[in-house]
Structure formats: C-alpha cells, structure tokens
Amino acid sequence: MAPAIADPLTTITGWRVLGHRGAPVEAPENTLVGFDAALAHDVDAVELDVRVTADDVPIVLHDPTTGRTAERDLRANISSYAALAELDAGYRFTPDGGGSHPFRGRGVRIPTLEAVLDRLSGIPLLLDIKSSRGGEAVRRVLDRAAAAERVVVASTRAAALRPFRGAGYRLGASRRDVARLLAATAMGVTPRRVPYHLMSVPPRYGILSLTGRRMLAATTRLGVPVHVWTIDDPAAAARLWAGGVTGIVTNDPGGLIPVRDAGRRTP
The whole model's pTM is what? Predict the structure, then answer.
C-alpha cells in the first residue's frame, strides 16, 4: 500500500525534464555549480545521488569512490566528510575530451545533501540513495529541512527506502519493485496498489523493455509516472514522451528543454 500522502502526485506528474546530476555536459556533476547550470535551463526537477560518509554525513556523490571526478581517489563510506570536502570536485571535468579543464582549481567541492537542499530551496528533487545503509542519515537531513513535499526518495536497494515508508515521503520504485511489476505485466496482471509513487528506470534491463506498451499501460493504471534515464537525444526524448513516459532524466537539459516546450505549445 502506498504511503498516506495528501495528493501524492501533485508535483511529480509535471516533471518532464530532470537534470541528471545537474547538467554534466556543462559543469561538474553532482555539484552546486552543476545544479545551477541545470536550473538556468528551467528544468522541472533535479536528479542527484546521495552517499553517506564514515561519520554519517549524507553527501552528493554518485560513485563509491572519488577518483573519476576528483584529483584523489577516496572511498566515501570509509572517509570523513572533512577529508572528502578538501577534494576538487571539478578537477576531472572536461567539455572537450581532455583538451581543457575549466573548473579545475575553482573551489568546486563535493556538497553535503544539506547544502544542496539549501541551495535548491523550493526546487523539486529526485534523490537516488546509493547505499543500503544511507536511508536513516538521509531521512534525518530531509526531516530537518522539511523537504518531504518536494522530494522523491529513490534507490535500487529496497533497504535504503525502509526509513521512509509510512513517513510521508514519496518513494521511487526499487529494483525489486520494478522486477515484480515486470513479472506481473508479463503474466497480464496489474497490481491494484504498489508501495511507490514513481518509477525511474533505464529504457531496458537487458532484453526487457521498461518502456513498452504493456509496462506503460500498467503504470498508467496504477497512476505511477515513469521517468527514463539517461536520455540526451531530443528525438529519443520526444518518442518516449509520445509513448507515455512522463519524465526524461538527461545530462543535457539545454538540448531537451526546447522539445519539452514545443510539446507544451502543441494543441
């Protein structure tokens, strides 16, 4: 049964373009400057990743380690926030295949979730918790910020979502939830209720389509919006929207916003 939230889909049914970790074609992913870049394109929401440090601080970081984005390779879950905060989160960003690094040495840091909530005050957010143990710490930060009304909490790991169930939060489907719905639709069955409010998925899991007619018919009957990642091609985004997908999670919000707006003008 879905958590008891008054009008739970009021905000997320309008999320058409979501900046994936901000706008990583323009600025370092999962950083304040990257989120600013996404907002400059008038995205409907921002998607971001959350991990928890050794001292229980939720930070915004996709990988378990920092080597892909920063100058040093630290593992987030065994490092203190103080150590991670010293890293240059813009160090490896390059818009031209390594020809330049325009954000290197400019003070771009790995932000805390708290800092992002403050910077993006009032902006709808899709939070992807990357570790099973992160849920409790993330919920404490969200509770303090009174952010439940503008956040969807998601994770592939069902355990990460347990602290949020029955607590007034909108939830994304876990990997197990998606698998169960896939199995049900394959048998021609649609559940009457599901314990989530949104499904954020890739177009396919292997040979299985997550955006096929049968799957989207089931999510429509359930009243569950489907958001697809990561789509940067405007033509592909237009096809997905036309097929019944609600939202597109993209690295290139600037490329998809014109397609979104053109669709809104179409009678």
Answer: 0.93
